[in-house]
């Protein structure tokens, strides 16, 4: 019985350690102010990166590369 209890405590400890490493997966109500500020900064950075990538894709679609025609012999 004691071995089973120790195993349960170890699993509980590992679960809590995992939660602290992946704090962003917790419900937002459980985050402290520092975590909320870090999450906000990360989301703002992501928003900026997505907007920049979308702009690059838009520019590429507006100016598609022109096909390069090689010197080929035409048979008539």
Automatic annotation (TrEMBL):
This is Uncharacterized protein. Gene3D superfamilies: 2.80.10.50. Transmembrane segments: none annotated. The lineage of its organism: Eukaryota, Viridiplantae, Streptophyta, Embryophyta, Tracheophyta. One of its GO terms (molecular function) is endopeptidase inhibitor activity. InterPro entries: Kunitz_inhibitor_STI-like_sf, Prot_inh_Kunz-lg. It comes from the Eukaryota.
